[in-house]
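Action item from last week, closing it out:
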Amino acid sequence: MNRKIIIVLIGFILLFGLYHAAEYMIVFKNSPLGFLGFQLLFFVAARLIAKWQSLPGLAAWGLSGKKYFLKHLLLGMVMGLLLYGLTFMISILLGAEKITLLPEMDAIIGPLSLFIFGNFFSSVSEDILTRGYVYQHLNRKVSNWLLVIISATIYLLNHIYRLGDGVETYLYLFLLGVMFIIPLILTKRLWFTSGVHWAGNSFFYLTHEFIKTDTNNTYLSPNYILALVIIFMIPFNYFLLRKFRLINVKAANSCRFPFPLK
């Protein structure tokens, strides 16, 4: 096997191991310190692996701090809130979900703030693993269509604790993977995607951990509603990125609706 391919695979395996070590610490050990420790190791390793592969640190994975990165992040956060906000609203209106308990605001501010803080690292590290790393090593080596499929599949399979949840879960996770990789192809940056991912996860946690809901047996489940909203959001994100002039010039020159896939 080619030495370069081996180095790329070793880097991916190391990042995969550190990401899931962090997930294990929070999911099974309920250890925030263990989670944050492995997340810190993940970002240190991501930078060192980039240097080992003769790449420019975290910027190699799409996390360049230069020129408008905050604009990318904030716009992505708005889209993340819209994604899960629309899904939750439609689910309630169609009767797919019913709110059974609204907690007092004072009771959720502290725990929610801690989740939002920790989830930032979890979201960005997963974006590096399943998108930034994949994009860096496959861009221009495979077609954009294939790049999207590979990244979305890796994102789906990365949810190793959800792989027994059935077709509905596979569908929306794969579509999320598609939606998340496209802005990276368009902008050459990961910040917009990470903003969507971070804010979306935080909103979902608020509406399904603090706000208590029951799922009703309707013809359209919340997961299928989410899948439909994602399909709507894919071209909407594209138009938004164009409107705010965040699309990379080279990508824009080859743009075709809904995104420049060759």
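Closing note: Residues 65-253 form one domain.
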